[in-house]
Design a protein that fits this description.
- Strand 7, helix 5 and strand 8 form a beta-alpha-beta unit.
- This protein is α/β, with parallel strands linked by helices.
- The strands form two sheets. A seven-stranded mixed beta sheet has the order 5-4-8-7-6-9-10.
- It has ten helices and 13 strands.
Length: about 375
């Protein structure tokens, strides 16, 4: 592809060709990547200024276990010449460390005290819990309080053997320090993520999220702390050199299904159908024309005045089916209408009358706000 080319302005034939090529590479490597052409057309009829926005992109994401790193490297190498320099393409296939892998030292984090970046290492013989959290995260507060309680309770017999590390993903170290001091959670070792790539390395996309390491540095559990019902007992079990049991535990050389799911097989019935793409694109063009008219219509703007939400959205998602050699689609119209009874009724009828198709699926959400 030419340098600086934009997926949004490519011809349909070029877009479909790109989808097929990437899908073929993933199929060849056994990755089963869901490569999608995604079109989103949004009519927003509330707020200060009604508006229509649209975007078209190519997207696909998948995380594989660290043992598939060679497969990931091969995929990225083969796909690079297909997508290189094309804007609007988001293809992300990566491998992540998970349960069963050995801990990889986390670097470039800021300590609770001091202004120089440090590393979080594992020392043989120690059991370590690394707790990714944030001060603004409500579900993170109880687990962190529990971490403090365990360390206070077992201070004498865990000394030098058990470490619990809080790794804050807050915007600033100062927010973390203030919160910890206010709560009195100082028995926990605290660090701020700062410039570290640890979230990417360990596939942490939400908090709270913990890594539990045994005395050899192997990750024996990775996931939400609530999954492990008795962390205190887990620490004692690992200190004895025994294996964990229960949900999410890495046991007998295999990661539990809750942390490293088996490779997904393509679904035959995933809601995608073979549709007439030309007809769909013509309907989307009509929808865009309607939206642009609505956004400048004084009567419609007056009807929408003061509404909490009022969206009419058309999404069109396409992907290539290697079994049939054809493109399959998911075509939907989302309607979100929140306002007075009169406003909800008006826009329900408006969309019903003017946004029509025998191809798309309508998903409508309405909520009437009672008059004050």
């Amino acid at each position: 592809m030419d340098e600086g080319k934009n997926f949004e302005t490519m011809t349909r034939e070029e877009r479909v060709s790109m989808v097929k090529q990437i899908t073929d590479v993933s199929t060849e490597l056994g990755i089963n990547l869901d490569v999608q052409m995604y079109s989103e057309n949004v009519c927003q009829l509330f707020g200060e200024q009604p508006k229509f926005t649209a975007k078209n992109m190519l997207r696909a994401e998948k995380e594989l276990p660290s043992t598939d790193q060679a497969k990931v490297d091969s995929f990225n190498e083969k796909v690079k010449p297909i997508i290189d320099g094309v804007k609007g393409v988001n293809i992300k296939v990566v491998s992540k460390l998970s349960a069963g892998d050995f801990y990889k030292t986390i670097g470039n984090v800021m300590p609770f005290e001091g202004e120089a970046p440090v590393e979080i290492t594992h020392n043989e013989g120690e059991v370590v819990l690394v707790d990714f959290w944030a001060t603004w995260c409500p579900p993170c507060q109880k687990p962190m309080a529990h971490n403090q309680e365990m360390l206070e309770k077992r201070k004498e017999d865990w000394a030098g053997k058990v470490r619990i590390i809080g790794l804050s993903i807050d915007q600033s170290k100062e927010a973390m320090v203030k919160h910890v001091n206010d709560k009195g959670w100082t028995a926990v070792e605290h660090y701020h993520r700062d410039k570290s790539d640890c979230s990417e390395v360990y596939g942490v996309s939400g908090v709270p999220h913990v890594l539990l390491l045994d005395t050899k540095g192997r990750i024996v559990y990775k996931g939400h702390p609530a999954t492990r019902k008795d962390l205190e007992a887990d620490f004692d079990t690992l200190l004895k050199g025994e294996a964990l049991t229960g949900e999410g535990a890495w046991v007998d050389g295999a990661a539990a299904a809750s942390d490293s799911p088996a490779e997904e097989k393509p679904k035959d019935d995933d809601g995608f159908k073979e549709l007439d793409a030309a007809k769909v694109e013509a309907e989307i063009a009509d929808f865009k024309a309607n939206c642009e008219r609505w956004c400048t219509d004084d009567k419609i703007k007056e009807e929408a005045k003061g509404m909490a939400r009022n969206f009419c959205v058309i999404t069109f998602v396409e992907k290539y089916d290697p079994k049939t050699g054809n493109m399959k689609s998911e075509y939907q119209n989302h309607r979100v209408i929140v306002g007075s009874e009169k406003q909800v009724e008006f826009f329900k009828n408006k969309y019903k009358e003017e946004v029509k198709s025998d191809l798309f699926e309508v998903k409508e959400q309405t909520h009437v706000i009672p008059a004050q």
